[in-house]
């Protein structure tokens, strides 16, 4: 919506002509989440990460993807979900978050969705502590949570990760 605000003010674009947001959905337990498609590089079948001994607790290890060592974020702990080991049917989503390549381990991939901007509730309007989320969408199938990739790791976690990876 904000990309089209200037055109709306000038009367060149009506709200019903706004482009939808492209999201890719995924599941953790019984909860559905989605990421903005523009921040997703690739998804693939999960592999066991190599340990990163001095890494932050929010990182379960690293995975070699096309010759690049990419940290795997423990998204379950970030979202206060019960811990679970990676299973062969799980997936990894390769994302760029605040100029950092990261992998997110998920139970299963969903689909690519187009959601009109006006259907996305800004979490700033929500009364509860939802600091990790950018928005929430109510669909016929249920609630869709949109994590804010820029907030997956805090400053301290980024510093520890940078040190552990020798950067």
UniProtKB/TrEMBL annotation:
PROSITE patterns: CHEW (PS50851). InterPro entries: CheW, CheW-like_dom_sf, CheW-lke_dom. Residues 20-158 form the CheW-like domain. Pfam families: CheW (PF01584). This is CheW-like domain-containing protein. It comes from Marinobacter halodurans.
């Amino acid at each position: 919506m904000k990309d089209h605000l200037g055109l709306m003010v000038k009367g060149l674009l009506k709200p019903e002509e706004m482009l939808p947001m492209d999201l890719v959905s995924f599941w953790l337990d019984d909860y559905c989440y989605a990421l903005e498609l523009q921040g997703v590089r690739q998804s693939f079948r999960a592999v066991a990460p190599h340990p990163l001994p001095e890494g932050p607790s929010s990182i379960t290890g690293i995975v070699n993807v096309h010759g690049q060592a990419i940290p795997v974020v423990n998204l379950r702990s970030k979202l206060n979900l019960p811990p679970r080991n990676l299973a062969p049917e799980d997936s990894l989503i390769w994302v760029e978050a605040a100029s950092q390549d990261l992998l997110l381990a998920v139970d299963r991939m969903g689909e690519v969705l187009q959601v009109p901007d006006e259907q996305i509730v800004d979490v700033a309007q929500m009364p509860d502590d939802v600091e990790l989320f950018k928005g929430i969408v109510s669909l016929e199938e249920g609630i869709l949570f949109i994590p804010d990739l820029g907030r997956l790791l805090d400053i301290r976690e980024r510093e520890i990760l940078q040190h552990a990876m020798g950067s």
